[in-house]
Amino acid sequence: MPNKVKDAWAQGRAVVNGWLAIPNGYSAEVMAQAGFDSLTVDMQHGVQDYLSAVSCFQGMQPHGVTPMVRVPWNEPGIIGKVLDAGAMGVICPMVNTAEQAQQLVSSCRYPPEGTRSFGPIRAGIYGEAGSYFETANRDIAVIPMIETKQALDNLEAILDVPGIDGIYVGPSDLGLSLGMAPKLDRDEPEIMKIYERLLNECGKRNIAVGLHNATGAYAKKMIGMGFKLTTILNDSGLMLQGAKTQIAAARG
């Protein structure tokens, strides 16, 4: 059960990630054919629940993209369920301390590395164990979000937690935590300095750095800077942008 995202990171390559806010398997199926390397079901701020996440996984499965989830919180129950459903990566919001990072890793790993309960109802062979247990701990990507001043204050301790594969930056919450307005595609010097610090510290530990972006152009710039996971907006935002562009052309 190889994880193409982790394989790309091991080879030093960046991946382009899509974001699924719409709770629908058909829209996930469409996004899966757009050329993304991975698709992340957003259960924190998207209009997604567990059943819609499963539907999205079903829609993307035939098309070879890596399925991931942003869970709503650092809570073992929902983390275990999305992994059992087939998620190959877990992005977890608001991880601010080493202890919270350790809890996230533990929830994603089977014993002896963690405390995840065994029952991969869909990730395995639909209720049968198969060989899933043998590779899950290696293949699942554990990705805490670094998006607060507290997390920055504890950065080195968080990154030193064994089992972290990558981190993911939420620019809006990071800005809010530092007294700025929430937005993507930031260019403030103090934010760029933070990005450089994250890349430097993660580079020392062979940890990938991800970032949420508003545009492909900014994502390309961030890949050039060293980010290894770049998300472009989300499905609903891209749909709205596309519709507005075509309406403007029709009326122009």
From TrEMBL:
It comes from Teichococcus aestuarii. GO terms for molecular function: aldehyde-lyase activity; metal ion binding. Coiled coil: none annotated. GO terms for cellular component: cytoplasm. This is 2,4-dihydroxyhept-2-ene-1,7-dioic acid aldolase. The keyword rRNA processing does not apply. The keyword Signal does not apply. Keywords: Lyase, Metal-binding. It comes from the Bacteria. Pfam families: HpcH_HpaI. Residues 19-208 form the HpcH/HpaI aldolase/citrate lyase domain. InterPro entries: Aldolase/citrate-lyase_domain, HpcH-HpaI_aldolase, Pyrv/PenolPyrv_kinase-like_dom, Pyrv_kinase-like_dom_sf. The lineage of its organism: Bacteria, Pseudomonadati, Pseudomonadota, Alphaproteobacteria, Acetobacterales.
